[in-house]
Amino acid sequence: MNHAPPEPPQAARRPSRREVFATTLVDDYAWLRDPGYPEVTDPDVLAYLEAENAYADAVLAPRRDLEAALFAELKGRLKDDDAGVPTPHGPYLYGWRFEPGAQYRQWYRRPRDGGGGDEVFLDEPRLAEGAAYFDLRTLQPSPDHGLVAYATDRDGSERYVVEVLEPATGRALDDRVANTSGTPVWADDRTFFYCELNEQLRPFRVRRHALGTDPADDPIVFEEADPGFFVAVAKTLTDDFVLIATGDHVTSEIHLIPAAEPTAAPRVVAPRRAGHEYSVAQRGDRFLITTNDRHRNFRLVEAPVAAPEEAEWRELMAGSEAVYLLGVVGFRDFVVIATRERGLVQIRLHYDDGRVVAVPWPEPTYAAGLANNLEYATDRVRLRYSSMVTPASVIDFHPDDGRMETLKVQEIPSGYDPTRYRTERLEATAADGVRVPISLVYPVDFPRDGSGPLLLTGYGSYGMGLDPGFSTARLSLLDRGFAVAIAHVRGGDELGRGWYEDGKLAKKPNTFSDFIACAEHLVADGWTSAGRIAIEGGSAGGMLVGAVLNQRPDLWGCALALVPFVDVLNTMMDASLPLTPIEWPEWGNPLEDAAAFGTILAYSPYDNVTARAYPPLFVRAGIADPRVTYWEPAKWVAKLRATKTDANPLVLRTNMDAGHFGASGRYDELKERAEEFAFLLGCFGRDA
Prior knowledge:
This protein is an alpha+beta fold. The strands form nine sheets. It has an eight-stranded mixed β-sheet with strand order 31-32-34-33-35-36-37-38, sandwiched between helices. The radius of gyration is 25 Å and the shape is globular. The two termini are 13 Å apart.
């Protein structure tokens, strides 16, 4: 970026000290946490965030023409009047669509028998009027489809309000339940269950609401005493049972309530024990249960609905190192089992007569899974599919004849030619000899002499793998001569549960060394060179970016850290924060475990900033973010400014109206992406 920006803001140093395991920790920027959080009103904090936003505006001003061009490209690939594939549900087909120019969806239904037109029952643009942020988390028709419960968030805090409407008339009921996690579940046509949040934004309690009654009087059905366990509610596909699930990242416990008896006491399936995870689906008079009680990659068992306890479990599918069991759905005529094998998702339908029908994916590497399947009695399964060169598709798989019926392929109005790009699956050798997969997409004329720029992304936490799916935004980089790669580092689940376990707790450093090994492999193989690699990660992926910036700053030419989890040690020592107790099984508890304290201290990005040169860095935060609180990226940027030895651009952009997921409108999301890409391209001298 060939211009002289103004002097950047310098946050005041106000050192705070604490002693932990005979180590003195000094935090110069702890004051950036507003003591009134989640309300942020401290004038010094707000002044600093606004100064950083103003500085970002100044630094990025010379790139505004490029940013505008990028936004036009991104918008041109978005179908203005896009619509989803309607989903069969009871007597109706439910669907959504965008009106031209609208930021948010309209939701409609039509009679399944073709006897009527579309009935728009929920208009998000109208609901979002006057709101800087708007998120509809879910909408749930009642069992008789006479009502719809829906949940919205208007500030990004993820405190959802549940409301109820009558779709046939559009009439809103007086029922309004605030402070929920946003997932109401109907038991019958007049009763729904929901999860209440506590002061730390944790879903800790399940209540039952009867229409027409005061929510303040809603009975407590279940309350979780362990602050490290979060509570959720769901329903079996048969509509027979409401499920109350509680747990953390490694332990689960599920309770059942017959939907026909909503006032019945919950019945536990298997009492919690540390490290035991299981899930429950229903098929007829049997429960299908996935459990890791005997194998870390899970096995499948069944039990009678009348006696679901562990003593009655009968094995249907043993655990295997080669097959990672992702999930099971019971339909009337078959059971769908989703697995991950050699890093790729496989879906098979199992019939009672022993017949097994596998979904035939058309490419050797892809991203796929089950889509919205709402009916227990069905002769087909709805799927989602894409690859790094194939736009997203919605497909109905017909097992009787093996037919893949494509219902929708993502339309790119400005045009897309897949023959201009190629994709490959590579492998890097990690520091300990483990082979780490890399998914790569690049233009057909991409050079192999190390001169090409490359964007490397990663995540590697919570057992959440990154599948090689399609991205229209990515085309703006590919068409400017970039390659884009995904590093499937340990901490995700791409190669099974063991892949996750080898990238957490004491083994967390594997995540970072894997990412560096992937970069070094791409350099050695001629795909790029040191200094020609941009890196990107969000949330825990932002922690990955922060860690490798500290460990190998020489490799990177640019970095995008989006809502980055970078103040790991301080956050994991603060049990008052929303996610901290539930996160201890992932990172360790540095207040009680000296080894965990030492491990986290050694990689926490904020704690390891040193006086050295760092590459250009763009950081994004959300003022209302309950997952990665705004002060984590703010403190990190403040410390980097005061410590780093280079003159490379460093910008912090805080969305003062949103939370963890950024802007909520579909065009506003594109504006944020255009800004990020304009910064990235500027790092490589690209002006157009």
